[in-house]
Structures are given as structure tokens and as C-alpha cells.
Amino acid sequence: MADVKTAPARPSNPQGTAGKPKNSSNFMVNLIVVVSCIVVGYLTWKFVLGNEGNFHDGATREKAANNLGTMYQGGFVVPILMATLLTLISFIVERALTIIKAKGKMDAGEFVRKVQYHLANKNVDAAITECDKQAGSVGNVMRAGLLKYREMTNNHELETEQKVLSIQKEIEEATALELPMLEKNLVFLSTIASCATLLGLFGTVMGMIRSFSAMSQAGAPDATALASGISEALINTALGISTSFIAIIAYNFFTTLIDGITYGIDESGFTLTQSFAANYK
User: Fold this and answer.
1) For 58-112, how does the pLDDT look when each residue is reduced to its tens digit (9 = 90+)?
2) 3-class secondary-structure state, position 64
3) CB neighbours of 86 closer than 8 A, spacing ≥ 6?
4) Which of 124, 192, 207, 255 is 20 to 30 Å from 116 by CA-CA measure?
């Protein structure tokens, strides 16, 4: 890959150079999304859940009148968990839109069969047209390979094995550009799946500390503080577990879709190299 002779001719170099500001832009977008979710989570906890109408005692906020008031009594961990949930939902929507687009408008298996048919008839232009119709990651990789495929059919200097290797290299480079786009931001889902449970557990521990502190008071235990502590523990547990559950389901669902797309890319690459080796010996 580091061959000095081939480096100047690689078309991916300009894209790689332009990729740095794009990665920086993606980081800023992700940062804005996370910060926005934190702000929204806090404001929701402070002004929606903490509205005086959700409590029997108004501004004191010690006797919840409904579930919203009970959630507010979960303590400072609740807005953190709410921000985590909002962040999770944001990236689930983003990944869903991206991966659905990457799947394309045509099933990968059907698409590969159509390309095989055109290549068997040595109609490379028709195969490229099918790539445009597919409009997904498999189609993008196949198109890059077909362009090199067409170039190699007119090349009379290289041996067949060298031409096949050139096509395979082009496919690998195109794949290397597509896979990061598919896997981007999945780290947020996997991280939230682990951290949400820990955050919920942390809130639970804080609530239990508050409960036992109320029970340790001299004389009769403070029933209000005891109930508030138990509520804090249970609310944080529920939010943490539910957020983690959604994150695990979403992560596994998206990785399954990505595996299917990756399989289609591998199948398309194998199709191109085998077709060239068979038709242009």
C-alpha cells in the first residue's frame, strides 16, 4: 500500500486530504449534539419535571403529586440519564438514516446477479448503470471496481493476474472508504449501553444512602426523606436499565445490517475478479 511508484496515481489521495476537515466537522457536529442533549435534559428535569404543579407542597418539592414529580425526586443523576437517553435517540436516528441509505434501492443479491449477467455479456457500461440504480455502499464499491475493470479490458501491457490484482486493489480501497461511514458513531451506542447501567447504579446508590441516612435519625425515621431516597434509587435504576436496553438492541440491530452490507461488498468484489479472470484470459 505504501508503494512509491503507485502513490501519485492513486485517486484516493485527494479524498484523503479532504477527509481531515470532514472528520473535524463530524466531531463538531457530534459535540453539538451531545451538548444540546445535556442542555435539553437538564432543562426538562428542572422546569418540566420540577414544575411546582407536580408536587403537593409546591416550591418545596418534597411530596410528589404525580409521576413527573417522582422522577424529579430522582436527584441530579436523572438529568444526566435523560441527556444520555436523548443522545442515544439522536444517534439511533442518524445511524438508521445512514445505514438505510447505504443498503441502497436494490437487494444486494439481486444487484450482484444483474451485474454478473451484464459482465457475462461483456457489457460493462450496463453493469455500471446498475450500480447507479442500486445507489448504496455495495453499488459504490462495485462501480469503483467496474471502472477499473473497464480500464483493464483496454490494457494490453499487464498480464491477466496483474489486472485482476489491480481490480482487487481498487475494490479494497473503495471498501476502505465505505466501511468507516457505516460504522461511524456506533461507538456512542456501545458506550451508552455500558455506561447507562452504571449511571443508573450510581443514582441507586445515592438514593439508598439518602434512605439509610433518614433511617439513622434519632427517634422516628423521617418518612418523607426515606420515601424520597427510595424513589431516587428506583427512578435511576429504571432509567439506567431502560436506556442500556435500548442501546444494546439498537447496536446489535445496526451491526447486523452492516454485516449484511459488508457481505454484499465482499460478494461484489469476488464477482468482479472472477468474471474478469474468466472473460479476459
Assistant:
1) 888 878 888 898 889 888 899 999 999 999 999 999 999 999 999 999 988 899 9
2) strand
3) 37, 40, 41
4) 255
CA dist 100 → 47, 53, 59, 73, 97 (Å): 37, 43, 48, 40, 5
| Among candidate residues 185, 195, 186, the one with its CA nearest the CA of residue 243 | 195
Rounded distance between C-alpha atoms, residue 192 and residue 246, angstroms: 9
Q: 84-87 — which CB contacts under 8 Å span 24+ positions?
A: 84/37, 84/41, 84/192, 84/195, 84/196, 84/199, 84/243, 85/41, 85/196, 85/239, 85/242, 85/243, 85/246, 86/37, 86/40, 86/41, 87/33, 87/34, 87/37, 87/188, 87/192
Give dist(CA 230, CA 232) in Å, integer.
5
HSE value, Cβ hemisphere, 13 Å, CA-based, for 71: 22
Locate all alpha helices (DSSP H) within the chain, ordered by sequence: 12-43, 67-72, 77-103, 108-120, 124-134, 137-153, 160-183, 186-215, 223-279
Residue 123: give the domain boundaries.
15-279
Position 7 in a domain: no
Residues of the chain with pLDDT > 70, as a percent, come to 89
Q: Is residue 3 part of a domain?
A: no
* 251-260 per-position pLDDT tens digit: 999 999 999 9
Cα separation of 257 and 103, whole Å?
8
Residue 159 lies in a domain: yes
Q: Contact, 236 vs 80, CB < 8 A?
A: no
Domain count, the chain: 1
Q: Is 55 helix (H, G, I), strand (E, B) or coil?
A: strand
Distance (Å, rounded) from C-alpha 135 to C-alpha 157? Answer: 33
Nearest-CA neighbor of 99 among 207, 241, 216, 261? Answer: 261
Domain assignment present for 218: yes
